């Protein structure tokens, strides 16, 4: 079995006891690396103050070598906060209004990818399989190819891929497409993303589909397929079953009394539709006066990417909106929205999902959305809650027992809340049973195995045309 080399922007380094941080993706990739032996490389999370570039640290844990690169402030500003998070992230989430195409950020993005390639290349053995993760690292494979590496290289995109008209607003879209085409396998979350990608190839005559899921571009053949990411379903369900023992979960239950709980859990991000969601809840609660005092909406939202100005501003907007709604509707003994601005441990989170009659997951655009899957996995089989899910989340393609909504349509979401809260037990069980067996079978380990199987199997390679053309 070949060794595995994983590259992602951030690396979940095990703590001193060797325990990997919690989280399905980290656990699944760690397991795959333990089994095969290999390397996990990425940014160390540290910035160097010295003008000299990039320290490089190696840590060995069992069969895994962690290779961590420090970045300079300039690198981080341009590569991470700049091009990755102010260009590719909004672009892939269809937010052209938020993209900022600065030439220096583009240059920084390609420079850091080259830097990663130069650190990584000496660690690679000829039959290693390389698996690159996410939009921060699209050009890495083409850098490695230019250095002469012939290894199998796969790429998984965790976020959506946009249609051609959106992508082509990016001045360097051609280099980005060439970067993607340098892989042997590209994994997307949904068939819509693959269709969009194929459309981008076709539109400018960059490439074409030469077989089912097999493409050719720049003289290189590669696969582009759907691998919907998932969670560690059985383990998460188990954590949820035991969460009642947790003091914080008990306190929450007590403070809730016999009110129904609606839960929303998202990183603070404009793609998650948090303001639309609060407006939909406000619409529901003002138009259903009988529910006033009987329903609590808990929105848990840790800050993220505060170095990007849009996120700072959003922080204020969401807090003000929640405050305004509460000010207008609260009673002395009831606050309709509880807005919590921090990260919550997995055990408590699982317990809160389980307590909630409704999981309100309404992103405006989302690659997959693991919160939707976690909510389903945490439910009681004998009395499950109802998932309300945006049709624009990748998860909507799998979770057919959810109430699917258009998150831009405030009244429709409000109606879905009313429907979910009054749904009879039989209907709730039926819907949950449509989803849970699928999630148990298609968990994150299966996702990891499926991707690696395709990466190991497909020949791909040169189609004879000039790759440098
Ligand atoms: P994210 O945009 O981060 O991921 P998501 O898939 O929902 O979105 O994953 C978030 C994770 O963070 C979940 O596991 C959730 O439990 C956790 N989380 C969120 N808020 C939390 C809080 N307050 N406390 C503790 N944990 C919290 C990107 C893409 C997604 C894609 C994933 C995986 O944007 O579309 O599903 O990668 O590919």
Automatic annotation (TrEMBL):
Report the EC code(s) recorded for this entry: 2.4.1.15
Presence of keyword 4Fe-4S: no
Keyword terms of this UniProt record: Glycosyltransferase, Transferase
- Record's superkingdom? Bacteria
Pathway per the UniProt entry: Glycan biosynthesis; trehalose biosynthesis
Query: Reaction(s) catalyzed by this protein?
Result: D-glucose 6-phosphate + UDP-alpha-D-glucose = alpha,alpha-trehalose 6-phosphate + UDP + H(+)
Query: InterPro entries attached here?
Result: Glyco_trans_20, Trehalose_OtsA
What family is it from?
Belongs to the glycosyltransferase 20 family.
Q: How does it assemble?
A: Homotetramer.
Cited function: Probably involved in the osmoprotection via the biosynthesis of trehalose. Catalyzes the transfer of glucose from UDP-alpha-D-glucose (UDP-Glc) to D-glucose 6-phosphate (Glc-6-P) to form trehalose-6-phosphate. Acts with retention of the anomeric configuration of the UDP-sugar donor.
This chain belongs to the protein called Trehalose-6-phosphate synthase
Q: Which organism is it from?
A: Phyllobacterium phragmitis
């Amino acid at each position: 079995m070949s060794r595995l080399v994983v590259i992602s922007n951030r690396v979940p380094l095990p703590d001193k006891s060797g325990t990997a941080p919690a989280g399905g993706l980290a656990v699944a990739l760690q397991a795959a690396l333990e089994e095969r032996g290999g390397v996990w490389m990425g940014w160390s999370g540290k910035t160097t103050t010295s003008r000299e570039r990039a320290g490089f640290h190696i840590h060995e844990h069992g069969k895994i070598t962690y290779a961590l690169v420090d970045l300079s402030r300039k690198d981080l500003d341009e590569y991470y906060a700049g091009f990755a998070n102010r260009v590719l992230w909004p672009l892939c989430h269809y937010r052209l209004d938020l993209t900022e195409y600065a030439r220096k950020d583009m240059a920084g993005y390609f420079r850091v990818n080259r830097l990663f390639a130069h650190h990584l290349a000496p660690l690679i053995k000829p039959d290693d399989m390389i698996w690159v993760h996410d939009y921060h690292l699209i050009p890495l494979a083409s850098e490695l190819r230019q250095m002469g590496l012939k290894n199998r290289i796969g790429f998984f995109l965790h976020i959506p891929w946009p249609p051609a008209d959106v992508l082509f607003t990016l001045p360097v879209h051609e280099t980005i497409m060439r970067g993607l085409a340098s892989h042997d396998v590209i994994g997307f979350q949904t068939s819509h993303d693959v269709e969009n990608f194929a459309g981008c190839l076709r539109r400018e005559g960059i490439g074409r589909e030469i077989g089912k899921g097999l493409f050719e571009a720049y003289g290189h053949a590669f696969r582009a397929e759907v691998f919907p990411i998932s969670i560690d379903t059985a383990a998460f369900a188990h954590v949820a079953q035991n969460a009642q023992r947790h003091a914080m979960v008990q306190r929450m239950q007590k403070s809730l009394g016999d009110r129904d709980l609606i839960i929303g859990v998202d990183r603070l991000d404009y793609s998650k539709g948090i303001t639309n969601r609060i407006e939909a809840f406000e619409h529901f609660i003002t138009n259903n006066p009988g529910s006033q005092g009987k329903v609590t909406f808990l929105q848990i939202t840790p800050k993220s990417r505060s170095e990007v100005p849009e996120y700072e501003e959003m922080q204020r907007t969401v807090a003000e909106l929640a405050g305004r709604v509460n000010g207008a509707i609260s009673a002395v003994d009831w606050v309709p929205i509880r807005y919590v601005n921090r990260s919550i441990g997995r055990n408590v989170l699982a317990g809160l999902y389980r307590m909630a009659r409704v999981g309100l997951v309404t992103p405006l655009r989302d690659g997959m959305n693991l919160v939707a899957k976690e909510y389903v996995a945490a439910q009681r089989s004998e009395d499950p809650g109802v998932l309300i899910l945006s049709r624009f989340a990748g998860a909507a393609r799998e979770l057919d027992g959810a109430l699917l909504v258009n998150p831009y349509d405030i009244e429709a979401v409000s109606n879905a809340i009313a429907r979910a809260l009054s749904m009879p037990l039989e209907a709730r069980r039926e819907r949950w049973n449509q989803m849970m067996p699928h999630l148990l079978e298609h968990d994150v380990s299966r996702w990891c195995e499926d991707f690696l199987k395709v990466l190991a199997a497909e020949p791909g390679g040169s189609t004879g045309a000039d790759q440098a053309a």
